[in-house]
Please model this.
Amino acid sequence: MSEKVQFENIHPILDKEHTDIFKAINKVIITTNRHWDNKKKRTLIVKSIKQLYKKCDKHWKTEEKYFKMGLKNMPPEHQEIEKKINKHRKKHIKMLDTIIKIRNKATTTNPIKSIMKVRNATIKHINDDDVEHFHWL
Ligand SMILES: [Fe+2]
Ligand SMILES: [Fe+2]
Model:
């Protein structure tokens, strides 16, 4: 269930944080597989989802720092990019919302399916949005 994920390398700090996010996702999957059948232990699943939230939140903050850096040094022909950056930011906010929703029902609804969706969306996000917006790093 926890096979290797392939995503584009962009920059050492971003790559490391992306790797940490996928590790946290794997941890949720492993924890769920191990403990779902024991209702008392489902709190461990909630805990692993909280860890995932933290890793994502930390990473979005790093990207926010680079957005600001990039916007400051924007070449004139790139001005349109600001709208795209705002879309990028919205995707981060939406992802955190999704993770909170999954966490809130993780003791009654097995989170694996939803977490796999988060995983695929994150791979797509890195390859489509992060690559485009942090190519200059
Ligand atoms: Fe990212
Ligand atoms: Fe991003």
